[in-house]
Structure formats: C-alpha cells, structure tokens
Amino acid sequence: MTDLAPQDTASDTPTVLFASPAAASGSPHVETPVAYDAVLLAGFGGPEGQDDVIPFLRNVTRGRGIPDERLEEVAHHYRHFGGVSPINAQNRALKAALEAELASRGIDLPVYWGNRNWAPYLDEAVREAVDAGHTTLLGLATSAYSSFSSCRQYREDFARALNETGLGDTVTIDKVRQFFDHPGFVRPFVDGVHAAIAELLGDGIAPTRIRVLFSTHSIPTADAERSGPRDRDFGPGGAYEAQHLAVAEVVMADIAAEIPAAADVPWQLVYQSRSGPPTQPWLEPDVVDVIEGLPDAGAEAVVIVPLGFVSDHMEVMWDLDTEAMEAAEEAGLRAVRTQTPGIDRAYVSGLVDLIEERLKGTPAADRPHRTDLGPWFDVCRPGCCENVRAGFKPAASGIAP
C-alpha cells in the first residue's frame, strides 16, 4: 500500500495562531513536551428542549440566510425526540470518563467543555478555564476525520472564542491530532461489526448475502476535495473519504483474521444526513438508496456501521436508527446497526493517549495508528480543509491560512 503519511509543506516562517511555543514552529508533529494545564473538550452542541430547536438550528446555519420555515423541515427530527438532542448528555458522560481516565493515570488536568452551537459555548469554557488560572489549553474536538466541518471549523471556533473574549494575548490553544485511525477509535467498530457478522453467519446467512455499509456524514464534494493538505492527492473525495475507506478496510481485515468467512462479506462506504440544495453536489451514495437496492443485488442482511460518528447523536438516531432501519424493513432485509465509540473504554483510553502524546512530545514514529495515512498532524498544514463558500477564517492549531 502506498505510504500516504502527511508531509510538511510549511514555509520557513509559518504563522500558527494562538499556539504554544512548541506548536508555533509549524512542525507537522510536535515532538517537544508541552506543560498543558487543561483540556478543552469541543462539541457540536444540541437543543435540550422544544423551545431550543429553532434557535439551535439558527446557530448551526448562521450566515446562510435560511428562513425558519426551512429550518422546521429539519426541526422535526429533534421534535420527534422531544426536542432533545442526546449529544450534550453524551458529552457530559465523555467529559466524566476522560476525567476518570486522566485521574487513573495520575494526570492532573481539568477538562472544560464547550460547544459550537449551543450552551455551554466554547467562549464560556475558555473563560471558565482562565478564571481557574488555566491558560495553556489542549483542544480535543469530538470529531475524528479531516474536513472543514469536522476539523478546520473547530480550529476556527477556538480562534473565534479567543478573539471574542479578548484572551488571545494570554491563552494558547493547541489541538490533538485527528484520531480516525487511532486504535482506540477503531476498536469499538471492529467489536461491533465482528459481533454482527458472527451473529448473522451463526444464523445461517451466507457471507455473500450479507452487506456491510460504513456510513458517515455527507459533505459538499467541493469541501471533500479540499479536505486534508492541498499538496496531496487523496482521490476525488479528498482526505475525508480516503480516511474513512482506510479505516473500513482495517475493520474488515481485522474481522476476517478472526472469522475467515467474513473475507467474503461485501462492504462499501455510504453517506447520510445531506442538507444542501439539490443543485449542490454532495458525497454519495446515500445509505437509504443503497439499502433499497440490496435485495436486487442478492443481499439478505445488512450491517449498518456509523463509522463517521463518535456517539449516538441525532444523525445516528434519525438517519440510521429511523430512516435506514425502516428502509431495510421495507426491503425485507435483516438489519443490525453497530455501536459508536461513545464512552467505550478503548476509545476513552485512546483519547487520553492523544493527550499524553502532547504532554510528552511523543515522536511521530512512536505514535499508534492503524492506517498508512497516519499519524495525522498536530499542526494542520496551510490551506487544509478550506470552506469553499466562506473562504479561510482565522484558525488555531494550524499554519495560516
């Protein structure tokens, strides 16, 4: 397999905003220990009641001029569940799990949690950290892959929080690397798919009659093409698609090593949760469209794997547990939806491993990764993950722009 490990494209005098001295050098991997004094857990955020739904969706779509009538088309997903997204509760649980794992290792680092789109907001979390005397922060975003919305936008969130609070001269925010191929993130998916395939095979379904669909959030194709460093050719879907495909290959190879028949189970990457206008190309195929065509392809069962998600938030509950499972039932398919990492012990432990990497300045050669794409950057490269619609905004933890 071709070595696609990230390469350095930094100039001799890079600009890395709001960075610790070690990260300010612009090196792809920071191999110098940094004495961080707190972790900043960054989430997407979600409504916690019916009255929150439309204000939350206005936050999500800010700057795009979408009227409330159109927002209501999405709001019914949340209203179906009482107007409550599970994501905030899941992040509270993750915060507690991280704190417990840090304490078990004797690492004295508080964890502050803030969101992009709903309370508690990131600027509030930064102020809370500073009020407690913590100014050298290590960001941990609840997203594993490279794209504008899953990486660069969080880096822009960090920069915006520091600018809006006026704390940019006294606070630094670095960010752990994207962890799509860290063993701790991959392990829960291996476990879930292994269990699902073993169950289906045990019930007498032939491996060629099973399909594994690895599902992730669709994004505009123009954003996908620009995901990752601009000097690398990752294929038509950019680093975003390449990372998902590489992880899916690892998952299936691991299972085939333990269940030889699983080597004959077909699989593919599919997409969900598209929200753009019909005229704008987004990554395809859609998970529901694929499920509807599986019987004609000879399938009897489908394993739906939420590979792009770290927890069972709204896109998983609605697009997979509701729409995809209904499509499978209508198609006469037996369907199993596997777990997300959530607060799986391997996942939480892996996240703390990432924190320790930066505390210790672990050399890149010693950092665990399951694909040839990793280990990913500590400091994002120039032009990484451009937002085609809005251009480049100030972003922490990466070389400008």
TrEMBL record:
Keyword field contains Metal-binding: yes
One Pfam entry name: Ferrochelatase
EC numbers for this chain: 4.99.1.9
Pathway: Porphyrin-containing compound metabolism; protoheme biosynthesis
Binding annotation for Fe-coproporphyrin III: 85, 154
InterPro entries the UniProt entry points to: Ferrochelatase (IPR001015), Ferrochelatase_C (IPR033644), Ferrochelatase_N (IPR033659)
UniProt-annotated binding residues for Fe(2+): 217, 315
Key words, A-Z: Cytoplasm, Heme biosynthesis, Iron, Lyase, Metal-binding, Porphyrin biosynthesis
Catalytic reaction annotation: Fe-coproporphyrin III + 2 H(+) = coproporphyrin III + Fe(2+)
Subcellular location: Cytoplasm
Family, similarity comment: Belongs to the ferrochelatase family.
Functional description taken from the UniProt entry: Involved in coproporphyrin-dependent heme b biosynthesis. Catalyzes the insertion of ferrous iron into coproporphyrin III to form Fe-coproporphyrin III.
Name of the protein described by the UniProt record: Coproporphyrin III ferrochelatase
